[in-house]
## 1
Amino acid sequence: MTKDLSKKSLFRLLDGFTSEREIKKYLQRFESDDFRFAVIKVGGAIVTDDLENLTDSISFLHEVGLCPIIVHGCGPKLTSTLNEKNIEFEFIDGIRVTNEDVLDEAIKAFKDTNNLIVNALNKKNVQAIGYADGYFDCELLDKKYGYVGEIKGLNIQEIKNSINNNKIPVIASLGALGSNQIVNINADIAVLELAKIVQPDKVIFLTATGGVLDENNKIISNISIKDDFDNLINKDWLHSGMKLKIEQIKILLENLPSDSSCSITSPIDLPKELFSDSGKGTLVKKGHQIDTFEYVSEDYSNTIKFILENSFNGKVSNQYMNSIHDKKLFISSCKRAIILLDNHKNIPYMDKFAVTPNARGEGLGNSIWKKMIKENSKVFWRSRHGNDINGFYKQISDGFHKTDKWNIFWIGVKNSDEIIECINYADSKEVSISYE
Ligand code: ARG
């Protein structure tokens, strides 16, 4: 639905952050998901502190024809009411123990929060339906937690119907035991159970920080569970709440199709996260299988040619194709990304790094890059002036040198004679791709 109106609003909200090509690509991808587009978890604090940005971003999605499923908590509101009313409560294993008094307040807080979201959306002419009466079918989780439910099922048809009618479902994380007893459910668990059934393309967590923060409080753009999980989870700077979230996301992704991904972003950055390759937030993917070959067998020639021509939008010379067999190859199992390495005087030269346009924004480039770097403490390469990737290269390289035609980068090359050797080699290598 690339209506003119939608296009205008897309550009307004995206504010020059992304290109038309990216917008079209993601619009097409998300539209084709139908009711499986996205489950969005909205923390209770967002509703209290950032409702305007939340509803702006959701109405933007609605305007371009996308209908996410919203699940919300109400934690901070409930905590403050309980404190005001001197009702004691405690957490066991991160779960709020819910006695009758706590439950009464929880039900009210959930209803208020749910109404707040639904009304704010309606005010923006976005139709939304609230589910605040215990949408999830539950059994009691364990007596020690009180009225806390374990989800056993849910009526997916209801959600499908509301999406078919172009109404955004807004679901409170409350459940029902049979027909009359309401129970409390941890909102992250509700998201997990819902996602298992919906199998969405995206699961999105909207938070105030807008992503997973590294030791310098900067947002980590990509996390691959396969490559980064073990390392990340052991970092002492990783906030305990985030640790828990990443562990839950790992379980979540294990239960979703391999293409699905999870984004953590803030309400205001949601459109940018969704409609650009680079995103604005943290993208968590299951990870990619990358295979390594010491030399390129004939079987791979056509695949490599295809990936190169697609990625660089040019024509690869025959001469180059005849020379690839001695190179070392890294290739993703989905055959959409490659790195080719040469050797010059025992220093690896990255001859090609290519990710096809339809695979960008999936963290695939990141995965293949990391694998190559892990295996090569020294490497050098070149890229054209004006290439979008140069910013990334400048950040991660140990040094770079500009010649008339090329930027030449290196990692781990320390000796100045070697650096000069690398620069001369890279600068004088023949061009292998021609552009019409
Ligand atoms: N727009 C794509 C998506 O929503 C890519 C997002 C990339 N985000 C990131 N933080 N690296 O899946």
Note: The first helix runs from residue 4 to 14.
## 2
Amino acid sequence: MSKLNQVVTEIVEEMRAREDRGIVASYIPELGRVDPQNFGMTVIDAEGSLYSGGDCETPFSIQSISKVFTLTLALGKIGERLWERVGREPSGSPFNSIVQLEAEQGIPRNPFINAGAIAVTDVILSGSQPREALGEIIRFMQFLADDSSIIIDHTVAASEQQHRYRNSALANYMKSYGVLKNDVEKTLGVYFHHCAIAMSCRQLAMAARFLAHAGLNPATGCSIVIPDRARRINAVMLTCGHYDGSGEFAYRVGLPGKSGVGGGILAVAPGLASIAVWSPGLDAAGNSHLGRIALERLSQRMGWSIFGP
Ligand code: GLU
């Protein structure tokens, strides 16, 4: 058995047995129904071999992890001009905070807090109808993961749409500063639906291969983005990917990563592997409790932290 195979197997065993599982998000009622006992993990190495365990084939709500892929698409559309509409500094605030927006004239701190991701979605929507923009996002995910079965969970999207008060406030506030160009309800509709994409650990790790390999899909040699862009998306994931738990994640795991309130975390070991973990219970900062611990174990045992072994 290879070392990676053994490490993944042991981590999955440990995580499935642990009793400290965090708290499942309930602010979107539909997410609150997920069983906290789930744990899944997939690691794909540079040769394309998959190391998986637990509930790695069960689709879950990727939520904010979708923001990595919408950022990639928006950069593809308008390039560096994106940074006129959204910053790239860690926020130090919860994912749905509104306070900074007022102090900073409606420009969100980064593309991974809700306000920033809504601004990025607005860029993707420009020039199309919501249905077309969503089609573009879902086809991009299917293409990256090489899997046409990936879909949007419309029940989760509807649940979030119904409880959209905070995100509506963020979007309307940005609209008042001209940061959003499209109809607020249309932009929010696309945002809620891309957050509601359901994917398994295996599908997510497949979709992120280009970030681990300088913008290339290592299986096909196909270029998704130039190396410079992959490196910079990874940089934003490292500094901003875990809300106001980003410093702690860098300290403990030392890999670029993005979490979502569905309990998933996508992480990238540059040049080595793409990784997805899922455990629905969250810690106080809204990041998967066991997901983070699993990644800490993996990075330590494999010596993968970008800061050194
Ligand atoms: N769709 C969620 C929201 O806007 C995303 C939350 C998250 O995963 O951070 O509240």
Note: The longest strand covers residues 40-45.
